TrEMBL record:
Residues 253-507 form the Protein kinase domain. The keyword Kinase applies. PROSITE patterns: ANK_REP_REGION, ANK_REPEAT, PROTEIN_KINASE_ATP, PROTEIN_KINASE_DOM, PROTEIN_KINASE_ST. Keywords: ANK repeat, ATP-binding, Kinase, Nucleotide-binding, Phosphoprotein, Serine/threonine-protein kinase, Transferase. ANK repeats lie at residues 81-113, 114-146, 147-179. ATP binds at residue 282. GO terms for molecular function: ATP binding; protein serine/threonine kinase activity. This is Protein kinase domain-containing protein. It comes from Paramecium primaurelia. CDD domains: STKc_AGC. The keyword Zinc-finger does not apply. PANTHER family: RIBOSOMAL PROTEIN S6 KINASE.
């Protein structure tokens, strides 16, 4: 944290005269450049205010908010992405900072670029006490964000049951429908969340979702499918496409070949009957997932792929289930993953690395805008589509068929951040550390702190500086050092998230609008020609196509 300066002196550098006299009650600024300098000081001071709120530095906040402080502070001024200091305090769950800011007239209904108020964010994060505090300061319960989600929608979507109860107790309108034409009941994460509404008799005449038989996509998202145009919002990466109402089950796909096999199931290359598009069908065995205790993780993956859309995140087209298995129908990316590419070519040129890094940066930005920390960025989780673009995925089942790299026996240990080893808690800066590890590995061939001895590697991660890879630019080396900063509060991206990275000299000439539109040149993809197994027989019996209630996994079908 920068030290608060005791005074600010503004000088006319041409004349050497002092323009701002700290002892005067009136600041006389006669020249345009003097005003520019004055406003710059105000902006920098506001950044200190937001940082203090983000870090729960109450002493710093009290100094900056004191009537005796020598610069006027606008507590509701906004930074990048239109975030106010109250947004930052709420995001980190700092109720003491929230209370202090509200006491000093912070607006409880202030909105960011996604039109989200602090209450929206608290509802997503599950901060009950902060929700109570905001309501105490008369925040509006039913304001909606850029997708017309109210705080009740977001609490229901994230399964924050205590907050749902609180919002309903204070008059939240449960009939509000978002841009998908879904209300809070439709969007609820699980049956337990729905029961909150059921117990209050709020949807007595409402047609409940079907939980039986072959999945009917008309069950809980049929109103979404009435959308005829793409939603245009301030968040340019978030686009919702029109899709068709149809019943989908495993029998609707032709299996061409197996792409991968893992501990919990298989991945197949498939075509949907009636069209020529290729998809990856991920089949997971319920019994194995339940035995390993990872059903919740798989549900989280399905949920993220449903609600978060980006040009650089693998798209989920369908999700359905049978009595014993879960199915996900995903984009098929014939360029393989970046780990496979490095197995074939070795380390990548800096130019190619930058092209992939730009796209993955935007994927991470989208996740963070939706309050999601990815936590698992590495070359094997980045796949290349037919046009050569990089997409973020979690396609773990296919890895066991790949040729293993020399570092594979250590698994993901080389990608652990210092804060994960110290168990000191982590947030969005974790993804920027892993982004640094990811870029480093692409240009160097190995992660920065890799050692065959696991304990030595852990010690390197916590205490050592990374060696500089050969033949990289000074700008890239500076970026890597700032991303691999061990103190997450000082790490690049810890203050302004993706915007902070975009301003770094390594990215200075990037046209981000072209990147979003997939117009930025990328390396030509080496498309893999799969050997279709004509003898492969994957059939789905009539019984296998049925989803029995006894083994039903709620909120899977999509």
């Amino acid at each position: 944290m920068d030290q608060i300066i005791d005074q600010i002196t503004i000088k006319d550098l041409d004349q050497g005269s002092i323009i701002y006299d700290i002892d005067s009650s009136i600041i006389k600024l006669n020249k345009l450049q003097h005003w520019d300098l004055y406003w710059q000081h105000l902006y920098e001071t506001h950044k200190l205010l937001c940082r203090a709120a983000q870090e729960n530095d109450l002493n710093q906040l009290k100094i900056l908010l004191s009537p005796k402080y020598h610069l006027p502070i606008d507590i509701n001024m906004k930074l990048e992405e239109q975030w106010s200091c109250l947004h930052y305090a709420v995001m980190e769950g700092h109720i003491e900072s929230c209370r202090l800011l509200l006491q000093h007239q912070a607006q409880p209904d202030i909105t960011n670029v996604q039109q989200r108020t602090p209450l929206h964010i608290a509802a997503i994060k599950g901060y009950l006490e902060i929700c109570q505090l905001l309501i105490q300061y008369r925040t509006s319960i039913n304001l909606f964000d850029y997708q017309y989600n109210s705080p009740l929608h977001l609490a229901s979507q994230n399964g924050n049951k205590d907050i749902i109860e609180l919002l309903l107790d204070h008059g939240a309108d449960y009939n509000i429908r978002n841009h998908f034409n879904l209300n809070a009941y439709d969007i609820s994460i699980d049956q337990q969340t729905q029961e909150i509404f059921d117990k209050r008799g709020l949807y007595q005449d409402y047609q409940k979702r079907s939980f039986r038989g072959v999945h009917n996509r008309n069950d809980h998202i049929k109103n979404l499918l009435k959308l005829s145009d793409r939603l245009s919002t301030q968040v340019s990466q978030t686009k919702i496409s029109k899709v068709e109402i149809q019943q989908v089950g495993p029998q609707d796909f032709s299996v061409l070949t197996q792409l991968g096999k893992g501990s919990f199931g298989q991945v197949y290359l498939v075509q949907k009957k009636g069209n020529t598009n290729y998809y990856a069908m991920k089949i997971l065995v319920k019994r194995k997932l339940q035995a390993a205790g990872i059903v919740k993780y798989i549900q989280t993956e399905r949920k993220i792929l449903t609600y978060v859309t980006s040009p650089f995140i693998v798209k989920l087209h369908y999700a359905f289930q049978t009595e014993n298995k879960l199915y996900m129908i995903l984009d098929y990316c014939p360029g393989g993953d970046l780990e496979q590419l490095m197995n074939e070519r070795g380390k990548l040129p800096e130019k190619a690395t930058k092209a992939y890094a730009c796209e993955i940066l935007l994927a991470l930005e989208t996740l963070h805008q939706n309050c999601i920390v990815y936590r698992d960025l590495k070359p094997s989780n980045v796949v290349i589509d037919k046009d050569g673009h990089a997409l973020l995925t979690d396609f773990g089942l296919s890895k066991e068929l790949n040729v293993q790299r020399a570092t594979s026996f250590c698994g993901s240990y080389a990608y652990l951040a210092p804060e994960m080893l110290d168990k000191s808690g982590h947030g969005y800066p974790l993804d920027w550390y892993l982004f640094g590890v990811f870029i480093y590995e692409l240009v160097h061939g190995n992660p920065p702190f890799y050692e065959r001895d696991k304990n030595k590697m852990f010690n390197n991660i916590k205490t050592s500086e990374p060696p500089r890879p050969a033949n990289i630019s000074d700008e890239l080396w500076d970026l890597l050092k700032r991303l691999l900063e061990k103190n997450q509060s000082k790490r690049l991206g810890s203050k302004e998230d993706a915007e902070e990275l975009k301003k770094h000299p390594w990215f200075i000439n990037v046209n981000w609008q072209q990147v979003i539109q997939r117009k930025q040149p990328v390396p030509k993809a080496t498309l893999r020609s799969e050997n279709y197994d004509l003898d492969l027989k994957v059939t789905f019996s009539e019984q296998a196509q049925k989803s029995e209630r006894s083994n039903f996994i709620h909120d899977w079908d999509y």
